[in-house]
Amino acid sequence: MEKIKRENAKFVIEFAKDVIDKTGPRLPTSPEEKLGAKIIADKMEKATGKPSVTETFTCAPRASIAAIPILGLIGIISFGLYYVSPIASLITTVFDFILAAVQVFTYSAKMDFLFRKGQSQNVYNSVDPASGETKRTIVLAGHMDSSWNWNLSLTNPKTAIPKTVIGVVSILAIMIISVVAICVGNISFMSIKEIASLEEYSGLDIFRIVLYFLPLLCLPGCYWLSIYLTWDKTKASPGAMDNLTGCALAVAIAKYYKENPDKAPKDCRIVCMGFGSEEAGLKGASAFCEKHKDDGFFNDRTYVLNLDSFRDADYYNVVNGDVWLRSTFDKDLTDVCYKVMEDMNLKPSIIKNPAGGCDSTPLSRIGIKTVTLNAQNPTTTDYYHTIKDTVENLDEDVLADSFELLVKTVDAVAEYDDKRNAK
After folding, report:
1. Each residue's pLDDT tens digit, 25-62
2. Whole-prediction pTM value?
3. What are the DSSP calls for 343-377, one per residue?
4. Is 75 within 8 Å of 174 (Cβ atoms)?
């Protein structure tokens, strides 16, 4: 196995390098994402000997996480409107929070009509069982797109989260201050000038002066949100770790079982999957679930291992849910994967995504047994969603161990399926 896992680690690195050299960053719905999907589909076909399937869908690429700068800009506009009309400021901040709640914190598409649309794609291929009879399916999936550059993380990952929180609190503060100003009334430059001319100030006068200047404290937070990320695709993340490692490992596993059918679990179809536009709010996985939830692709013996970022040797994780999206993934599958990591002495953790989401969420919502696996520091780093996510920063040892982990996990999932369906 040592030789095989080393060969496949090199395969993953070359896979990522080839895609990035030809496409650069692959932002959701961009021509570069489309080209990357074509390259990955070709690699899948070479690995399995079968034509890959490509399915297109439409989504709004900037309607989710990429909308954060818009939230900051609206906050800045609300600050300016406060001095014109606190009522207008209140309206814009309320809209800002609705936009954040619906689009950023829940990945809902209810307000997508406000954003430009584009076309993305999912691709997949499979290795059929040597027996000719498929009784179960194990899907290994990764997303093909890469992220916008997160400026705050790149500049100083330790302050990125505090600055973001301050930004959200600042917009909330402007909203509250606007309500108070409406109730107090007469908060304007002329009224403050008149108060300043008085020889003595009443408590209400002082309160009005404070209300006039208080929103100034909110400007830095709104500004930090407005520069949270850049939409400039030339400065976007190349996406080597996140998530060409996941895509490449999925293809490597399919290739391994195609070349070694005797090693594959009995009567098991192995599917390698590439989802599009994950960074736009899990749009590819959501589109795939919507298309296939009732057509027989999924059944009670389908298991999806979502592979999302493999780089950090000290952080092997089984991700069993997304906090923001209020999702929880399959407990049995979580336990199976954790046990394999533990047996390999990878010192794993079971975690929930503290922010954002992963492609297991749409799958779990239609009842599919799924879990997400990664080897990534779960805290904010300067190489997650930044221009530093390059091939040069990948770790061959981690990729070798990750390949072995997935081979053993496929076997463990098949064994679990046997026990579940024993008669």
Report:
1. 999 999 999 999 999 999 999 999 999 999 999 999 99
2. 0.94
3. HTT---EEEEESSS--THHHHHHTT-EEEEEEE--
4. yes
Mind listing the pLDDT tens digit for each residue in 360-400?
Answer: 999 999 999 999 999 999 999 999 999 999 999 999 999 99
Cα-to-chain-centroid distance, residue 236: 15
The contacts of residue 299 (CB under 8 Å, 6+ apart) are 137
> Residue 2 contacts by C-beta under 8 Å, 6 or more apart in sequence?
none
Pairing outcome for strands 136-143 and 302-310: parallel
CA–CA separation, 17 and 12 (whole Å): 9
* Per-domain boundaries in the chain: 2-62+117-148+232-420, 68-105+157-229
**Region 2-62+117-148+232-420: CATH code:** 3.40.630.10
H/E segment holding residue 236: none
Cβ(121)–Cβ(341) under 8 Å? no
Query: How does DSSP assign 204-220, residue by residue?
Result: HHHHHHHHHHGGGGGHH
CB distance 303 to 296 below 8 Å: no
Q: Per the structure block, which two tokens stand in for 79? A: 């600050």
The helix/strand/coil state of 137 is: strand
- Cα(147)–Cα(129) distance, rounded to whole angstroms? 36
* Residue 234 DSSP code: G
- Which structure tokens are listed for 155? 């500049």
